[in-house]
């Protein structure tokens, strides 16, 4: 008896003894060694399916890899499991997952039927993902699912997974759907394509009744800074800084940072210092101004520091100034921090603020901060002294 036969005998013996872990180990040896042939496939499949049906989650996870490696001989048995309404939900979930990996056209329709009939959201999600893994051959089938309300959202998500230009037209067909979740999913999927049909859809969605849709549209436009001038995106997005939904506002702040430019910085600054702006949004705007990485955005942060009255905002401004990465902006950022430190501003009386300034000066690494840091190293507060000494140490090694 050759080595292959011996492993098969061992696997069968282990199966008879209900040692499922040993059976899996034996089957994996055969698969990894690629020594199985057509003559052994039937025995391997029988053993693998037995583990698949009887095992726990981990054993099913492990044997799934064996079933994938066995290839097309597993298609029909797995389809049978999908179509068996009495089968465990977990078993059907695994069957759908494996069929997705096998990417065989015969599995598309059974997966579609599972989408239509199952009430389990996890099973429907894995079936949708499995269909998407089929690639472009699955698009016509998925498009049919768009016509049915109970499968439309999963169909949109499946098209999003495929990410092929052939999906643009069907996705465009549902951007005005009555369900906000479908509109949002379609817009998110379309945002990944640089296609001339997409930007008008995103611009229109900025005024959607759904906050989720508006936020998704803003996020999509934020990645099209190449169209900023042509579509006047800064002016289009700026009003969303004052949206009723805080998540939409924060998305707008981040989008303006991606657009860049003095106009974007000015709009962010005005929203930052407004008395009506929630602190959550103010914090997001402070970060956005730093991401702009321009001299004007730093100047706006300095002006804002002198206008806002919340310690949390002071702390954030000082902290983000220390994160400047552009070499040409590190000196201006250092100058702003030193000016704050040496001013009569009430923030300079707070130990945590002095500590944060010392930390940021150390991160910027500008020697001009040495004198001020030396003074901070003798401060009455221990944490201020520690951060000042650490910053001086950094400067010494630059």
The fraction of residues assigned to DSSP E strands is under 5%
Distance between the termini: 71 Å
CATH class of the domain at 325-398: Mainly Alpha
Give the CATH topology of the domain at 325-398. Answer: Leucine-rich Repeat Variant
What is the succession of H and E elements?
HHHHHHHHHHHHHHHHHHHHHHHHH
CATH superfamily of the domain at 325-398: Leucine-rich Repeat Variant
Mean pLDDT: 90
Main β-sheet description: none
Which structural class should the secondary elements be placed in? Answer: mainly alpha
Evaluate the radius of gyration. 30 Å
Please give the share of residues in helix: over 70%
Low-confidence stretches: none
CATH architecture tag of the domain at 325-398: Alpha Horseshoe
- Got a strand count? 0
How would the blueprint of this fold be written?
Layout: H1 3-16, H2 20-33, H3 38-54, H4 57-70, H5 75-83, H6 89-102, H7 108-117, H8 121-133, H9 139-145, H10 149-162, H11 168-172, H12 180-190, H13 198-205, H14 211-222, H15 228-231, H16 233-237, H17 246-259, H18 262-273, H19 279-292, H20 295-305, H21 311-321, H22 327-341, H23 351-364, H24 370-376, H25 382-397
Helix pairs in contact: 1-2, 2-3, 2-4, 3-4, 4-6, 5-6, 6-8, 7-8, 8-10, 9-10, 10-12, 12-14, 13-14, 14-17, 17-19, 18-19, 18-20, 19-20, 19-21, 20-21, 20-22, 21-23, 22-23, 23-25, 24-25
